[in-house]
Structure to design on (167 residues):
């Protein structure tokens, strides 16, 4: 079917969709559309919060044990699960970064609150050696940022390794 140049700009000349008009089996998209942050089948929010809390506790215990790379592995696992469960990237990325930072933050808080250990002075020294202001908060913030970057990199790799056509 050739385009007729005389119909350009006239009513009904730009048909988008099928030639027969809207299908009765398919509902019209004329209604209001609202943005959504979560998928349709998300499960109980309490279970999601408990899973995030358990993951943060595991990351905190592993940080105390010296397993500094566990935020990356947590992000990798979350990326694989998120791809198979079809979870949105912005929700998954936010959760993974917050869980990694909370886990490492809990481990650092535990070490700082125990008596007799010089974590705050070590954090000040590390911050000063790194070219940051010589405050313990700067060293701790950089440590939490490293944990968040590890988790985000693991999430990216996990989503990249999982096939995209999973049903």
């Amino acid at each position: 079917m050739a385009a007729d140049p005389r119909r350009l700009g006239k009513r009904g000349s730009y048909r988008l969709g099928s030639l027969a008009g809207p299908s009765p089996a398919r509902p019209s998209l004329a209604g209001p559309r609202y943005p959504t942050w979560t998928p349709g089948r998300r499960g109980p929010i309490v279970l999601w919060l408990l899973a995030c809390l358990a993951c943060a506790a595991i990351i905190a215990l592993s940080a105390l044990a010296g397993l500094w790379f566990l935020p990356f592995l947590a992000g990798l696992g979350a990326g694989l699960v998120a791809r198979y469960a079809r979870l949105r990237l912005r929700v998954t990325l936010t959760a993974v970064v917050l869980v990694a930072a909370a886990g490492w933050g809990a481990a650092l808080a535990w070490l700082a609150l125990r008596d007799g250990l010089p974590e705050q002075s070590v954090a000040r020294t590390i911050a000063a050696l790194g070219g940051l202001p010589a405050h313990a908060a700067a060293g701790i913030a950089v440590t939490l940022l490293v944990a968040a970057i590890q988790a985000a990199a693991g999430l990216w790799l996990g989503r990249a390794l999982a096939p995209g056509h999973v049903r």
User: Anything to note?
Assistant: The CA atoms of residues 60 and 157 lie 22 Å apart. The mean pLDDT is 79. The longest helix spans residues 136-161.
